[in-house]
Amino acid sequence: MNSFIITHRLLCAAFVDEGLFRGALQGGRADVSTVARYLALPIAERPKLSYYFDARYYLARYPDVAEADKDPLLHFLEYGISESRSPHPLIDLHYIAARDPLLLGEPATLDALMDVLEYDLAAPGPYFDPAFYQEALGPAAPPQGLLRHYLTEGLAQGLSPNPFLDLAWYIAHNHDAPSDPLDALRHFALIGDLEARRPSARFDSALYWARYPDIAALKAPPLRHFLDIGRSEGRQLGSETRIAVSTPSVGQPQPILPAAGAEAYASLRARLAAHRQAEKDQVRVTAPVLLESASPAADLAGLRLPADPQPRLSILIPVFNEAAITIECLMAIADAGVAAPYEIVVADDASTDADLAGLAQVANLVHIRQPSNVGFIANCNAAFARCRGDYVLLLNNDTQVQPGAIDRMVQVLDDTPGVAAVGPKLIYPNGRLQEAGCFIKPNGESGMVGLFRNPDEPGFSYDRDVMYCSGAALMLRRSAVTGALFDEAFRPAYCEDADLCLRLLADGHRVRYLHDAVVVHHLSVSTNRGSISRKLRTITRNQQALVARWGDALAQADRIRTLAFYLPQFHPTPENNLWWGPGFTEWTNVTKATPSYTGHYQPHLPTDLGFYDLRSPDALAAQAALAARYGIEGFCVYYYNFGTRRVLSQPLDVVRAHPAIAFNWCVCWANENWTKHWDGGTKEILLAQSYDDATLAAIIADVIAQAADPRYIRVAGKPLFLVYRPMLLPDPAAFAADCRRAFAQAGFPGVHLVYVESMEAVDQGLRPADIGFDASVEFPPHGRAVPATETAEIIKDGWNGYRYDYPETACAFITRESSAYPRYPAVFPSWDNTARQPLRGTSFDAISPDAFRVYVEEKIDEIRNFHLGDHRLLFVNAWNEWAEGTHLEPDTGYGHRWLEALRDAVAAKSWE
Amino acid sequence: MAGSIDDTPITIIGHPWAPIGMGEQLRSHVRAGLAMRLDVKVYDIFRYAQRTDPAHDSLLAGLEVDHVPPGIRIFHINGDEVDRVLETFAARGNDFAAGINIIIPAWELPTYPSAWVPALQRFDEIWAISRFVQSSLAAAGLTSHLVGQAVQFEPMPFLPRRHFGIRESAFVLLHFFDMSSYAARKNPQAVQTLFDDLRRETPFADLQLVLKVKQGEHGSDWGADFTQDPQIKIIDTPLDTRGVLSLINACDCFVSLHRAEGFGRGLGEAMALGRLALGTDWSGNTDFMSPTTALPVRAREIPVLADEYPHGAGQHWAEPDLSHAHALLTPILQDPARGQARAQRGQRAVLHSHGNRAVGLRMLERLEALLAPKRGKVKRKGKG
Question: At what angle do helices B322-334 and B188-201 cross, to 10 degrees?
Answer without folding.
Answer: 50
